[in-house]
Amino acid sequence: LILTADTCCLLVSSTVQLGWLDDLSRLSSLTFLDLSSNCLSTFPASLAQLANLERLNMSSNCIQTVPSNVKFMKRLRSLNLENNWISTLPSQLAECENLKCLNLKFNRINFVSMLNYLSGNYIEYLSTDQLMHIDKLDLRRNALCSCFRLPSSCFDQLTFLDIRDNWNVSTVHLTNLEVDDRRHVYFLVLDCLIVMPVPLHLVFIDISHNNFDSLPDWICDLPQIECLRVHNNRLTNFSSIAPEDKITKYFLNLKGLRHLNVSFNRLTVLPAMDANVERNRVNVLRLSSNRLDESIMPILMKMKRLKILDLSRNKLRYFDDSALTSLSLLEELNLSSNELTALSPSIFKLPALQVLKAHSNHIKSIPDLSLSPTLQVSLILTKFFRLQSDE
């Protein structure tokens, strides 16, 4: 049942006509009700009489309070109160035992005990001593304090956490939580992320746009991680532990890693790769805007499954190796904005290469582009030097 702002009355059947919200209580079998985008200033008390209601959408109104008799809506599974004027919630809401999705985005809340979708409020901290049977928690664009900690004993089913765009947060404690799907903690100012126990089933993590000097050590213990995004931080090392230990970790342990983005950091070295090149499964590697030079070449040559390699904005003086042509799957190579003076002919022998970017270097001559049977796009021109072909 959907009642919009331009609906004067609703014909439910040929004999029953509704004209007032209080009449909705007559629809005892109703399971879904949409009252969004109206001008409601109060939460209709009559809705609590809809004992079979499972989904209720009252977003984009002017509601300021939620009545205590909401506790009678025992079958309610989803309640959408997004974009209202709500500042507090009744404690009785916790008695809605089947409630799994509570959307309170863009209200005026600064303290909560009931949690779910709460982005765009003024929340500084969380406080609850009740078990919360929810699987998703969205706290984006709030005012969370510098040390964010979830009451671990209250979120036994949480699988999704999003605390982006909370500019005060610098440390996050997630203990005794099984957040095994995705964790969104980017666009913060984090320099510390503590997760216990290690989420062994995690496949994706994004901690980009933070203040990490090194990666959290527990990341190298994630056996199923496939995508790791840590770009736009302050990384000088992959780990804060001793250098000799650092070399034996990370790439060596992350055997399922497919996508790695560490662009826009301060890296000068890369961790060692597994001596068995068949175990190195990374196919997308983004290293742009670091401080890397040609010393990383031996490590790159062990990454035989690379399809995309971005080395732009580094300090490479040459890009060549006797094993370069062994990167037989490489389709895209970005060497722009380095210190290259020439391009190795071996680059044009890469059997799958389709895109080559090498602009903004010091290149004065290039090999015959026709040597590459697959190259489709090449950006090698620079306005500072006249290129001469080797033909």
TrEMBL record:
A Pfam short name: LRR_1
UniProt key word Isomerase: no
GO cellular component, one term: cytoplasm
Classification via InterPro entries: Leu-rich_rpt, Leu-rich_rpt_typical-subtyp, LRR_dom_sf, LRR_domain-containing
Keywords linked to the UniProt accession: Leucine-rich repeat, Repeat
Lineage: superkingdom: Eukaryota
Protein name: LRRCT domain-containing protein
Organism expressing this protein natively: Angiostrongylus cantonensis
